[in-house]
């Protein structure tokens, strides 16, 4: 019997945020979304995990989804680190188990950074197409998009349906291997949290700050827990050639390259991602 998905508001590390959670047993899985995304990106994986009896939780990260914004006087990544660490500790305290931290794109970067902290109760990290390995055309691709440039340039108010349709088209084009094979609800859910020109400008401002922070975001020599690296071989935003840098630093990491998949394997191949995460989480540290 599948466990129900619980959605609620909470405060984590001083941020008012939204949590998607399922009850269950075994090492809990914390799921982290990517740049401009939200916890909703994990709904299909959460649905599949709910049928297996595995505890899992996805959260909106600072500055994205419905979470409170990034503080302007501090770097972005440390603020994400703070929230992820608090969520890890909470899950560990509630379950009595160490936590598997998985994340896509920016969330993948955050999952690896959490794994560097040996004081956190983490049993494994599963970065999925992680940002931060030097090969990252993602932000220039977004910033140069003509639809986005038009939205930011106009001085007129833009109705939410128009903004939503435009952002959805950008997302469909950039994030997926086959833009014609993306469920409309996936696109609609992503675009729902980017409602107007002001929110677009705020998110793009976070992106500009992240570009420099993501040049050398890791100290992988501090990672001692098992690592599962997942990537799509048709990822245009964060090409999978960045995998070699992680595998050189962590030669014992497990690597899953998914054929015909773009930047969001959790949406394009949710069955494969769920099965791989569960296999990884079942391996003793």
Structure commentary:
There is one protein chain. The protein has about 280 residues and is an alpha/beta fold. The chain has a domain at about 5-135 and about 215-280: Rossmann fold. Helices cover about 40% and strands about 20% of the residues. It is built from 11 helices and 8 strands. The strands form 2 sheets. It has a 6-stranded mixed sheet with strand order 1-2-4-3-5-6, sandwiched between helices. The chain has a two-stranded parallel sheet with strand order 7-8. Helix 1 links the parallel strand 3 and strand 4 (about 55-60). Helix 2 (about 75-95) crosses helix 3. The chain is globular and about 55 Å long. The model has no long low-confidence stretch (mean pLDDT about 90).
Please render the helix and strand layout as text:
Elements (H helix, E strand, L loop, with lengths): L5 E7 L2 E8 L2 E8 L10 H8 L3 E6 L16 H20 L3 E6 L1 H10 L6 E7 L9 H6 L2 H8 L6 H16 L8 H9 L4 H17 L14 E5 L10 H7 L4 E5 L6 H4 L1 H13 L3
Helix pairs in contact: 1-11, 2-3, 6-7
